[in-house]
Amino acid sequence: MPIEDKKDSWTKDIDKDVLAALPQTEIERQSSVSFSPFIPTGEILTHSFIRIIYQLIAKEKQYIQDLDTIESVFVKPLRAAKPSIFPEGELEEFVDDVFGNILDLRECNRRLLEVLYVRQREQGPIIQRIGDIFLGAAVEFRLAYPACIGHHMVAERRLNEEKEKNSNFRFFLEVRSTTS
User: 67 with 102: CB under 8 angstroms?
Assistant: First the structure.
């Protein structure tokens, strides 16, 4: 069956009103995933799963880079500021209140990413399974993430209070926002 016929067979099962509302890019995306000429029909789910795993690894890497950015753009410069932006003895309390345990989170996720990379090297290019990796990571995550999530409101409140009362901190944020 030619490729176009396969695309047509996908679209013939879709309600015409729904199909009419879909952008052409979505129709093409659905068609390319479901009916790639390089993937036998029986392997469609495997292909989709592989794409999801690779996207997951890429997103995990990006998340760690985002946490690195928070440290390099905000935490380290706050600690290195001369003169200090905060009165004597308040800086570390502020960093703990606002940034909490994000460095712990970063380390948890770095370990997860490293295990994913190992699996990728062992099984690549097609990774067969990753559920066991996430079960292992869940043990570590269940300690770090609830503390972060539970602390979010405190962090937001402290950040807003400091922005209101500390002009040096407001200026610091303005400068950091334009340089990041």
Answer: yes
- Over residues 93-150, the pLDDT tens digits come to 999 999 999 999 999 999 999 999 999 889 866 677 889 999 999 999 998 999 999 9
Cα gap 55→38, rounded to integer Å: 20
- Whether 96 and 161 share a structural domain: yes
Closest of 50, 63, 38 to residue 137, by C-alpha: 63
Give the total number of structural domains in the chain. 2
Which of 163, 169, 156 lies closest to 84 in space, CA to CA? Answer: 169
Taking only the tens place, the pLDDT of each residue in 31-62 is 444 334 444 544 545 556 667 788 888 899 99
**Contact indicator for 100, 148 with CB cutoff of 8 Å:** yes
**CA nearest neighbour of 180 among 95, 59, 72:** 72
Q: Which residues contact 144 (CB under 8 A, 6 or more apart)?
A: 101, 104, 105, 108
Q: Are residues 18 and 55 in the same domain?
A: no
